[in-house]
Design goal:
This protein has nine helices and eight strands. It has helices at residues 2-20, 62-80, 91-100, 183-202, 221-231, 235-249, 252-264, 268-282, 285-312; strands at residues 23-30, 41-44, 57-58, 87-88, 108-130, 133-154, 159-174, 205-212. The strands form two sheets. Strands 2, 3, 4, 5, 6 and 7 form a six-stranded mixed beta sheet that branches. A two-stranded antiparallel sheet has the order 1-8. The longest helix is centred in the C-terminal third of the chain and has 28 residues, at 285-312.
């Protein structure tokens, strides 16, 4: 019992510590996950219900297959039409150019197909005894799973820049067959997630990043002021105060928090210099982890700059 109480107290103390920590956040623009070779024009060829070979495993429910393909195609076009990174061109123009052997109106295009689709509806019986009477109840289940294959193609050379697949599945239960959720409705949200993740592969995207500052045991009023400024969202002023204290006293917490706040403001190289100094002097594991994170942010920032430069000089 004593061990259980001590464990509970430890967890409570940890939660209390986390809740008291100061957290700041910022939004970074991340580079596209794939090298799109500076492409600025794009099209979406309609996703197909079946593979080019015509063979597909699973059931042959072409209605739901088509719903899924139309949804993904429309969702991609709608999302791409609303970004500044690409100019979305008509898939009709692209198809005509391919059929006629003409130069492509776009630099890259996305397309795909359903390689596997299952819509499995089953009935089930349950038995229970109530007042010595056996009662049989029936319920129904629907299990839907499908695999989408997609590829990103260089339109001028027909070279596939990237090809992959995603598996999507969900299930539902109801007391009657007619009350089962339709197959498409079951997988719609996952299809949206697929489109969102695919767009991250081909264009920069926004990501919210959170940073937790170290709490200080110092009674220095200047440290308390710096922490208070951070809690109130005055990041720049808090950063300046922490760095002033670090320059004057060499306080680890002040230096660490100052470097973290520089990182949060996008001043990555100065943040790295300070964190590297803390690692060299103290070897503190927290500073080592933070330095790795800063190095990663610099790599991502450089990659984004290179992608943007490639587009400018197309």
């Amino acid at each position: 019992m004593k061990k259980i109480i001590l464990t509970a107290l430890s967890v409570f103390s940890l939660l209390a510590l986390i809740s008291c920590s100061t957290t700041v956040s910022t939004t970074f623009t991340r580079p596209a996950e794939l090298d799109m070779h500076g492409a600025t024009t794009i099209a979406v060829l309609p996703f197909q219900e079946y593979p080019p070979t015509g063979y597909s495993s699973g059931s042959s429910d072409s209605k739901t297959r088509k719903e899924c393909c139309d949804f993904v195609t429309d969702e991609l076009e709608e999302r791409l039409a609303d970004v500044e990174y690409y100019t979305l061109e008509s898939s009709t123009r692209l198809k005509l150019a391919i059929e006629k052997g003409r130069p492509s109106p776009v630099e890259v295009y996305i397309t795909g197909y359903v390689s596997r689709f299952n819509d499995d509806v089953k009935s089930h019986e349950t038995k229970e005894t109530v007042d010595d009477e056996e009662i049989i109840s029936v319920y129904y289940t629907r299990d839907v799973d499908l695999t989408l294959v997609y590829q990103i193609v260089d339109a001028s050379s027909n070279v596939v820049l990237h090809k992959d697949n995603v598996s999507i599945s969900d299930s539902t239960r109801a007391d009657s067959k007619r009350d089962l959720t339709p197959a498409f409705d079951l997988v719609e949200s996952e299809l949206k997630d697929f489109v969102r993740d695919l767009l991250k592969k081909i264009q920069p995207y926004e990501e919210r990043v959170y940073y937790t500052l170290l709490d200080s045991k110092s009674k220095d009023p200047e440290m308390k002021l710096a922490a208070k400024l951070a809690k109130s969202g005055q990041i720049e002023s808090s950063c300046e105060k922490f760095l002033e204290i670090y320059d004057e006293t060499g306080d680890f917490v002040a230096g660490y928090n100052g470097a973290i706040l520089l990182e949060a403001q996008g001043d990555l190289y100065n943040a790295r210099d300070i964190m590297q100094e803390l690692v060299d002097v103290t070897g503190d594991k927290r500073a080592v982890r933070a330095l790795k994170n800063i190095d990663r942010e610099i790599e991502l920032s450089d990659k984004l700059d290179q992608q943007n430069a490639n587009r400018m000089y197309r």
